[in-house]
Amino acid sequence: MQTMGKWVFRQAGVQHLALEETAVPTPGVGEIVVRVAAVALNYRDLRFINGGQSGTALTLPATPGSDLAGVVVATGAGVTRFSEGDDVLGTFWAGWIDGECPPEARVLGGSLPGVLAQYVVLNEAWAVRAPRTLSAIEASTLPCAGLTAWFALVEKGTVHAGQTVLMQGTGGVALFGVQLARAHGAQVIVTSSSAAKLRRMRELGATHGIDRSETPDWDRVAREMTGGQGVDHVFELAGGDNLGASLRALRQGGRISLIGTLDGYNMSLPSIPSFIGRPTIQGIGVGHRRAFDDLVRAVDTLGLKPVVDTVYAFDQLPAALAHLERGAFGKVVVKVGD
Amino acid sequence: MQTMGKWVFRQAGVQHLALEETAVPTPGVGEIVVRVAAVALNYRDLRFINGGQSGTALTLPATPGSDLAGVVVATGAGVTRFSEGDDVLGTFWAGWIDGECPPEARVLGGSLPGVLAQYVVLNEAWAVRAPRTLSAIEASTLPCAGLTAWFALVEKGTVHAGQTVLMQGTGGVALFGVQLARAHGAQVIVTSSSAAKLRRMRELGATHGIDRSETPDWDRVAREMTGGQGVDHVFELAGGDNLGASLRALRQGGRISLIGTLDGYNMSLPSIPSFIGRPTIQGIGVGHRRAFDDLVRAVDTLGLKPVVDTVYAFDQLPAALAHLERGAFGKVVVKVGD
Amino acid sequence: MQTMGKWVFRQAGVQHLALEETAVPTPGVGEIVVRVAAVALNYRDLRFINGGQSGTALTLPATPGSDLAGVVVATGAGVTRFSEGDDVLGTFWAGWIDGECPPEARVLGGSLPGVLAQYVVLNEAWAVRAPRTLSAIEASTLPCAGLTAWFALVEKGTVHAGQTVLMQGTGGVALFGVQLARAHGAQVIVTSSSAAKLRRMRELGATHGIDRSETPDWDRVAREMTGGQGVDHVFELAGGDNLGASLRALRQGGRISLIGTLDGYNMSLPSIPSFIGRPTIQGIGVGHRRAFDDLVRAVDTLGLKPVVDTVYAFDQLPAALAHLERGAFGKVVVKVGD
Amino acid sequence: MQTMGKWVFRQAGVQHLALEETAVPTPGVGEIVVRVAAVALNYRDLRFINGGQSGTALTLPATPGSDLAGVVVATGAGVTRFSEGDDVLGTFWAGWIDGECPPEARVLGGSLPGVLAQYVVLNEAWAVRAPRTLSAIEASTLPCAGLTAWFALVEKGTVHAGQTVLMQGTGGVALFGVQLARAHGAQVIVTSSSAAKLRRMRELGATHGIDRSETPDWDRVAREMTGGQGVDHVFELAGGDNLGASLRALRQGGRISLIGTLDGYNMSLPSIPSFIGRPTIQGIGVGHRRAFDDLVRAVDTLGLKPVVDTVYAFDQLPAALAHLERGAFGKVVVKVGD
């Protein structure tokens, strides 16, 4: 029997993570086995390990991780979408193919086992073909952060040239947001309380930066940047009272994407001055497989390169999670195989 | 010179309303003169008279009223949409024809003069043909309350048979909401703290009523009424902390219409448990002329009869406003002409 | 081993259909076994049996039939959507869940085995819960004819009250079209060359009928019926040169649904007079599972009863197909079990 | 009284065009007077002059021309959208603001007087602000050709990165189509029977060219270029039997824009093999003012430069029309003022 390494925790808490030796899985009917090359981490992995993932009862022992890039090494009976040797990415939502999210859809590294292992078995419906133009490390950043930005901007927001999109902060979704909005000819305003990060966002393509530590009334300044009309779309990534300012920055009939990758936050919708603009406020929870296929095609056409902060070796997961916790500019990725 | 009566206030406050004698207007280029038959009142008329209408600087003297039914008695040069003798309704938004609301659109009885007069002059673009099947008194209820419900349900919400829509309260928009949702084959849940009003809503077609005074956790009960899936669409007419309950009552991917007829309210968006459902929260501010034409056609096809609570004579405006203030079931209408 | 009856043909042609004895299937991983209660026939079943189904290489022996109602009698490992005893309907498209049709989707009684058998095995993703308010015989008419009408009218056409929809002919899709359009408050014009069938369509709810044998310029008459504006939506079910007339009957910006249940026809798009109206011409090929769930909910809410022409016993399939071939008003259904 | 030059014809036919001296217009209520700087020509101007414009009774004498760039030199009473000195473009459709085209909308140089004059008077609703980044000559190309491409691609087609759009031929709309599709990250295939023009299209950004004179089965080759999936969107600019090939080149659920700038053509919709893909076939007739504002914003953001073939002086209109008739690569523009 072939064995492999897999990260497991038997009690909630990062300190209980252990790299265990276990059997390489074999594919059942309709399943594929993927040799994992890279796993990108998300903040929700930390919450999951710490036992606080919302809406998901933690069943122990558990393996964390949702965003994998790898190669198909075995296929079960009836598999038609993939062959051995195909480079694939997992879908964050297992079973959300297109349209609305069906009740039976589940999350890898959530109610389904996670992917921080050398091999994983997936239903063939839970994977897409990887982009031709990215390394596995780069591609592993797409399933959650990349698709969330794409879904908000393109699938729901139908971004187009000449619009102005505002990104709050400089997290992983905001970085993809800048790159994708620019690739569609839109202007991008970024808010951050770090001048250094604003500089890096401008290098990435952002057309304007607002330093929130110097400009607390950033919504007024953002509105001025659009000639008084207001921005077309805000990525609401901060939460709290911030939503009021987002509404004030918005044009008549504009759009706010509430982005929480499954974890919400308290926020307050303000009164008269901001409300009268007929906004559309849209909750975003990653996205479906068809949109993921669209994103992969776009990445290859555009030559878009995801921003990776640091790559950690497979046995360095705790260090990678510590990095994630103290903040990063770009994705933190665990290199699993070759 | 022909004269007419017109309601005017020279200081903010209902007590300063006076029925004045003034010249009947004549139409300019592209304008029509309408002999007013009926004006339906809205709560915003009270705020306007009291000087508190949001976003609108009150220029005195002023005439209140936005929702008129009447007949065209004169047409200016270049008018092509109407002829003398046509029964018409005014559009709440003057200059919002279709699609997005353009910045130049204004409101009758807001930044434009109101319609509580025996004759009014309107740009021909600010009126639609009245339904064939309603009296002027009934038809006068359509421009604000009727169109708001239609816009939320049909134009934005694409209601269809088998859905469940939840109406908060028993105001004018909620009443139209019940009638229109039922006319499209949807089920309707109404919440109210009055058992008597719930009874009347059921007579109007509502399929379920929840008495909020007896069932404070109405969202749980509403969800049960849909077999646990959640309702498809909530008309958020209460504001405040209520929005949290609305989100809890909603299905995955459901819709909340924030309805305020131009006046907002403080409300809070709740955290995790309700947020993960990818809701669409849509601000509604009445609607455009093309949708109004659609509504008129629907009223005639359906034989839908608006609910009128009480009709007041033209010189009884203060009594009508007092009625509005203490609450009504159905619209309060001022009969102006014959 | 339990055995059952199944219709099989080993050469193309209705005369080669034979009722064979074979083993009752057992469910694999993710599969359900359904005891079939009723199968509704479609014209495409005849073409399939005669070897002419487009785009599908006929692999013999084969079993025809796509539209089944039945009850779950066994579930395989990993099944979560259904339990034994659930009343279900098959989906015409196996694997089209929502949104766009993925390339891997296939058709029961097409590239997948048909359902004219006492038991069938289905992936659990290929079924929906049956409506509570219909018999199995009635419900079996929904998967193809019912869903096609629903998908064109509601999912793609967002029908609403006050619109006018025009149905060409009196086939199965047109009958559902009349019932569903009426249930959403729309008016319906039907064209047919049979006065008797027009009478029955009016009984079913159609608001207007046009006898094409007496009124060859039916498009002109249809336009008059809408006060000159043109109809909002045409179900193009006739093909050929007819599309030109459909465009002439249509309003500015109206919609034509090209409905062929997978088999096309030659048709010509006419020139200037009809083209300038910015039509949307939409090809319809049945629909997806999420819309089917919506339809089932609508049927239960509305109490809609499908029109069944004649019910045949399971061993009378050849007679049922002969009936189909000579024409029916409503669906021809084979009763398989109890 | 100030006078100006204006092109007039008193009989149908280019040979009857005469440059006449007439009074400079003055603005009425709600109107602006524009000093015309440039007028771009369209093929429909030729048809109009030759008396063959579809659906429009030619009233003589008449002035041709629809696409103007100029500067506001006078404003009538009640004008709020513009001030003297504003650079503006006329809207092709006078009175189509947003959403659906209302019946009262008319065309400049169609049922309304044309703009080949040194000064024109327009309702203020029939103009938009010119882009900051283009000369008047460049900007004059936007109202018809530019907006048609934008409307098909962005407003109706919601183009996004990674898609493949196919342009038939190298006319004015196709040129804008290439530039705008590329600006949204899409790939573009162009078909033409001129190798030289295909070269120029590649210089403009087209990713692939197919020489129809060498590759009559261009649809097969186009499909191969997309890895067998089919293209996402075809600009159908050729008409005739070509539509069949367009459908064969299209992916499942793809879009065809029928573009005719108000003049249709005979075309045939083919049978089975192409039909089963659930296409959306959308008639395009230029577009509305809100989309035009969006286009102007996009042009400024992108720095997009329209392709101008040749500029003619105001008194050289007949030579400009002759150029148009024999074909151009880019727009033919008449320089009217400075």
UniProtKB/TrEMBL annotation, chains A, B, C, D:
This protein's superkingdom? Bacteria
Question: Where does the record place the Enoyl reductase (ER) domain?
Answer: 13-334
**Gene3D superfamilies associated with the record:** Medium-chain alcohol dehydrogenases, catalytic domain, NAD(P)-binding Rossmann-like Domain
Q: Fetch the Pfam families from UniProt.
A: ADH_N (PF08240), ADH_zinc_N (PF00107)
- TM helices/strands, residue ranges: none
- InterPro entries named in the record: ADH-like_C, ADH-like_N, ER, GroES-like_sf, NAD(P)-bd_dom_sf, Zinc_ADH-like
Q: What is this protein called?
A: NAD(P)-dependent alcohol dehydrogenase
Protein's organism: Paraburkholderia agricolaris
Q: Lineage of the native species?
A: Bacteria, Pseudomonadati, Pseudomonadota, Betaproteobacteria, Burkholderiales
